Amino acid sequence: MPGEGPSLIHSTDVTGHMALHRLVAMGVLTRLDDTCGYRNDYADTPLGRALIVEPMIPYGATAAGKLALWVWVGGRFPACFDLISTSHYRARVHGRDMHVHNRRMLTNHMVLLAGLRITSPIRTACDLACMEPAERQGCDVNQLLAVLMTKYEISPDDCLNMLWRNQRWPRHSLGITTFIALKRRRKSWPGVDDDGTGWGAASAADGDGMVGSAHPDVQYGSARPTNVFVHCDGSA
Q1: CA 87, 172, 110, 133: dihedral to nearest 10 degrees?
Q2: Taxonomically, which superkingdom (predicted)?
Q3: Are the C-beta atoms of residues 202 and 153 closer than 8 Å to each other?
């Protein structure tokens, strides 16, 4: 669980830039830019990562794409902020551009996690599969999807069903092609049983930023989130 105190530490919170850089060198913080870093003890869980992201994005915006992926599975902090919003934001945050998408969002495609509006794991997977080719440069989308879908027990068929119900999404056909290819390669996914029908024991510590067990009281995929997750309209 996250520690106490703020998730973000600014140079003004300590004795200046040198002190901030020293905390980064000691492994206490991960640097976002020369003036701010996030606490690594918060970055070990989805709840903690949501607490890191929530103060950085504009009010009312929904974390999506690679930003949502980071919250759900960890890893390297993304180089840009993928958001869903009806507003436009030009200011950079910690040296990162905001990529804003005005997309149709059903209530059950979003959850609230520690106050952060974020796309659900299955919606995040669909958004990643539909990313335009330019956004895919520098990352292995299929590998990222396999990690996310294994951790939250989402099958390619779950994602295909969501895409077939939303055929007007941008690059819908690219998403369909991506999940069909993933379905064929499912035996090679981390944590999937040898026969390709089960999910295996994906139980590595979440602190590695890649794989881990889902919360025992939370169901993902096409199921409604429960426990610490509530829909953005406030319903359980």
Answers
A1: -60
A2: Bacteria
A3: no
Where do the domains of the chain lie?
A: 1-42, 43-208
Residue count (the chain): 236
Model pTM?
0.79
Q: Are the beta carbons of 62 and 117 closer than 8 angstroms?
A: yes
For residue range 85-98, what is the model confidence (pLDDT) as tens digits? Answer: 888 787 889 989 89
Q: How many CB atoms lie within 10 A of CB 227?
A: 11
- Nearest partner of 188 among 162, 149, 219, judged by Cα: 149
Angle at 74 between CA 137 and CA 165, to 5 degrees: 65
Q: How far is CA 116 from CA 91, 112, 232, in A?
A: 20, 5, 10
- Residue 91 and residue 80: Cα distance in Å, rounded? 12
